[in-house]
Amino acid sequence: MKSYHSLCLLVHSNCTNAQDAYLDLPETWQATSAFINYKSDASLPDNAQAYAASPQSCQSRVENNLAGVVYSNCDVNLEEAESKFHNNIAGNSVTSVTSPIVFFNCIVRYRGGQLFQGQSVVLQRSLLRLEISLLPSVPAIVVMKTLMTADLNQNTVKLNL
C-alpha cells in the first residue's frame, strides 16, 4: 500500500502532466482543484476550528498597516474578499496591496476568478475550497499551480498573487 506522501506525489505528477498537455480544458483545472481540496482537508485534523466556520458569514477587521485585513472563523469567497479590500483601500489604514489579506480558521472558497496581481494572501489553519467549473483566468492558473506545490500541512500558507 502506498503512503499518503507517495500517493500525493503521484497525483501531483499526473495533474502537472495534464496541465502541460491540456492547459485549455476546464476538466484539467477541475481535477487540479479537487486535488488541492483533498490536500487541504488532509492537512487539518477532523476537529479543526475551520470546519465550524461554515456557513458563518464574514466580517473583516483592519489591523495595523503591517497586518492588513483579517478574516476569522468564517466561510469566505476569496475573489469577493480581495475585491472588497481593494475597493476600500483608500478609506482605511491599509495603504497598499503589500498589506496581506489574512484568513484565520476560515473556509476560503475560490472559483477561479480574477485576482489582483501582487496581493499577498495568508491562510492560517484554514481550509481551501476551490470550486472551478470553467477555464480559470491566467492568474488563477498561477495560484492553482502554486497551491499544487504548497505544503498545506503547515499551519500557515502564504501566497503572493
Your description of this structure?
The relative contact order is 0.18. A 5-stranded mixed β-sheet has the order 1-2-4-6-8, covered by helices on one side. A 3-stranded parallel β-sheet has the order 3-5-7. The protein has 161 residues and is α/β, with parallel strands linked by helices. It has helices spanning 4-21, 26-43, 78-87, 138-149; strands at residues 61-62, 69-72, 75-77, 101-104, 107-110, 120-124, 127-130, 156-160. Helix 2 (26-43) packs parallel to helix 4. The protein has one domain (4-160). Strand 1 and strand 2 (69-72) form a beta hairpin.
**Given the C-alpha coordinates, what overall shape results?**
globular
- The main sheet orders its strands as 1-2-4-6-8
The value of Rg in angstroms is 16 Å
Assembly type: single chain
Helix content: 25-40%
Query: How many domains make up the 3D coordinates?
Result: 1
Number of helices, counting only DSSP H or I runs of 4 residues or more: 4
What average pLDDT do the residues reach? 80
For the report, how would you describe the main beta sheet? 5 strands, mixed
List segments where confidence is low: pLDDT < 50 over at least 5 consecutive residues. Answer: none
Tally of extended strands? 8
Please write the string of helix (H) and strand (E) elements. Answer: HHEEEHEEEEHE
Could you tell me how far the N terminus lies from the C terminus, measured between alpha carbons in angstroms? 37 Å
In terms of DSSP E residues, the strand content is 15-25%
The class by helix and strand makeup works out as alpha/beta
